[in-house]
Amino acid sequence: MQGWPAPLSDEDLTRINFSLRGLENIQAGHRLMPPRPPITLQMLTALRLTLKIGRSFDACIWAMALSAFWGMMRFGEVSVKSTNTFDGNLHLKRCDIYFDADLDGNPYARLDLPSAKTAKAGKRALRNLFQVVPAQANDPLFSWVDDKGNVHPMVKQTAIKFINGILTEWGWGTSSRHSFRIGGASYFLAQKVDPEIIHIASQWKSLAYETYIHAFKLSASRHMSNIAERAL
């Protein structure tokens, strides 16, 4: 299949086995990890019904969730490790977002990371965040305001813990920092978007991308099995 002429010689087999051992070492850390569960549209609906997006903290969580899902972003791209680690040269700021329209006239929001991401469906959540959380151009994009009026960047673990608390109350298991990105990719795959388009849009490395495809297949199989069981 790979163009090796038959019959294979001992030298050929040695070269092939050498390559296979190298591939095994490269993929070992990826293939042994169980695929992470994706965030689904039902989960996003539950999140929206629970959040009070007129409050700054909730508005920030909602904007982060939709941006990470529809933009297939790493959760670390919409949050910081701790309040004191915000760096305007590394993290998204208010001035890094642009509202525009695509070639069909549909509005979208563009977040200028080191690589651009789009979040058309999260546009309303981002505009709501701008209204609820007054901040300056160089303040963190995903931020909230305390009772004293101080602006704080959203910390990753704080956001994940808060979201998981809501999802648990609704009867789902906990999510991970990759679940929104996987969920967005799973949704687009289900809508028959070309996998290569998803790959390019999210700028994944190939091995990580294959892992997300695998997670989607497992999730789809589980939901299809549940439908089949109810039909019996």
Automatic annotation (TrEMBL):
<dbReference type="GO" id="GO:0015074">
    <property type="term" value="P:DNA integration"/>
</dbReference>
<keyword id="KW-0233">DNA recombination</keyword>
<dbReference type="InterPro" id="IPR011010">
    <property type="entry name" value="DNA_brk_join_enz"/>
</dbReference>
<dbReference type="InterPro" id="IPR052925">
    <property type="entry name" value="Phage_Integrase-like_Recomb"/>
</dbReference>
<dbReference type="GO" id="GO:0006310">
    <property type="term" value="P:DNA recombination"/>
</dbReference>
<dbReference type="GO" id="GO:0003677">
    <property type="term" value="F:DNA binding"/>
</dbReference>
<dbReference type="InterPro" id="IPR013762">
    <property type="entry name" value="Integrase-like_cat_sf"/>
</dbReference>
<protein>
    <recommendedName>
        <fullName>Tyr recombinase domain-containing protein</fullName>
    </recommendedName>
</protein>
